[in-house]
Amino acid sequence: MHSMAPQSRDGRPRALSGAQPSADSYHLGNYFGAFKQWVTLQEEFDAFYFIPDLHAITVEYDPALLRERTYVAAAQMIAAGVDPGRSALFVQSHVPEHAQLAWVLGSITGFGEASRMTQFKDKSVKGGQDSSSVGLFTYPILMAADILIYQADKVPVGEDQRQHIELTRNLAQRFNHRFGETFTVPEPHIVKSAAKIYDLQDPTAKMSGSSQSHAGVVDLTDTPQQVAKKFRSAVTDSGTEISFDPQGKPGISNLLTIYSALTDRPIADIVTEFQGQQYGHLKVAIADLTADFVGAFGDRTRQLLDDRSELDRILADGAARAREVAVPTLELVYERSGFVTP
Ligand code: TRP
What's the gap in Å between 18 CA and the centre of ligand 1? Predict the structure, then answer.
C-alpha cells in the first residue's frame, strides 16, 4: 500500500507549467510573461514544462499544423532558456496519465462548478456554447490533472489562469478529503513584476497569438525587418512627452515596458534617457533592440528545428522523466478510488 504522494527526488519543490501551441509561433508577450519566469524557476525548482497539445484540439484546428506548431513550441522553449538537461520538457499527449487522471477528476467536479469557468464563457462566445466542444468545457479539469499528476507545488501562470488554479486546488482538497491524502495542493505563481506586453496596434489589449491581425504582435519567428516595421507603425499617444503613464499613454508606456524588459533596466532610467526626445526616437531605439533580440532568438530556434531527431530525443527523454512521477501518482489515485489492481 502506498502511504505518501511521490515527492521530488532531490527535495526541491516542484514547478509546472504549459503554454498552448495555438499559433505558428509564440510572441514577445509569451517570452516576458511566461518563459522568462520558467527559466528563473528551474534554478530553484524541480521543474516540469510541457506543450499542451491535448488542450489545443478543444477548438477547431488542423492536424498537420498542430504537429508543426508542437515542434516550434518545443524549439522556442529551449531557445528561451528552458534547459532540458535540468527541467523535464515534454509533450502532454506523450504522458497518457494526464488524460486518465482528468477522467477521475471530472467525476468529482460539479457541473455547475465547471460551468462557472470564465475562460470557457469567453472562448465559446464566437461560435456559441451549443457548437463549442465538450473538450473545451472540460478543459480546466484536464488542466487540473496536468498539475496534480506531478504533485506540483507552484504553477507559474498569467492572471487569466487564476480561476483554473483555484479549481485545481478545490479538486485536490476534495479528493484528499474523500479518499485520503493524495495530492499536493498547488499554489499559483503569478509574478506581479512580470512585464505585461500589449498589442502594438491596440495597446489596451494584451499581446495575443489569437489576434486577428499580427500587425501589433511581435512573433518570435519574425525577421528583423518585420520587427522593425511593426514598431515603426506602433500606435502612440497624443502629446509629445515620453513618460510612463499606462492609463493616459498606453502606447508609449507599452514601448517603455518592452524596452525595460529587454534591457533589464528600470523604466524610470529609460524615461530619463529619452527626456526631451520624441516618440520617434524611442520607436527607432526599441525597434533596433527588439530586432536584434528576435533575430538571435529565431536563429537559435531554426537551428533546433533543423534537427528533428534530436528534438524527438529531447521530448522522449522529457516524457520518460515526467512519467516517473505521473505513473506512481495515477497508481495511487486508482487505488484510492477503489479500482481493483490489474
Ligand atoms: N491553460 C493554459 C493557458 O492557456 C495552458 C495550460 C494547460 C497550463 N495546462 C496547464 C498552464 C497546466 C499551467 C499548468 O495558458
Answer: 5
